[in-house]
Amino acid sequence: MVAAALPVTDEQRVDLTRMAASSVLPHRQVVRARALLWAADGVANEEIARRVRVDSDTVRAWRKRFAQNGTEGIGKVAKGRGRKPWLPPDTTARVLELTRTGTPPGGATHWSTRSLAAVAGVSKDTVGRIWADHGLTPWQVTTFKVSNGPQFEAKLVDVVVCT
Fold first, then answer.
1. Mean local confidence (pLDDT), 90-117
2. Cα(31)–Cα(26) distance, rounded to whole angstroms?
3. Nearest Cα to 74, choosing from 120, 118, 121, 35?
4. CA-CA 20 to 30 A from 80: which of 93, 107, 109, 146?
5. pTM over 0.70
């Protein structure tokens, strides 16, 4: 038995066409939009499945989800699916606290990923990911260092007046 053509409004068809032609949307969303356009044109589920290289049950699930959620639900990962966070939240908080207020061991001026990883008990890559996620760059110094050289004052005046 062949499924009836998927009912779509003119506005939904415009959205689906835009999604299907996109080069910036996630691949998952583009493929599903194409499949749904074919379903709206009356193409059989088995043929759509063959074209996008999925199971026909998957196409049926996409049609059902589109009927329930419209174009907003296309390409969304269902709740409870996908990769689960493996790092306990208190570990992230500890790394952030150490980064912001802790003192590195051995008289270092700032934390490195390796030194903080050793103290926090995680890998250096985990520290790097946490820093990137929170926009932290502890290796960058944002202070002004005053020189005690004999000509510092004259050089400083030249730089400040010139700029």
1. 89
2. 9
3. 35
4. 93
5. no
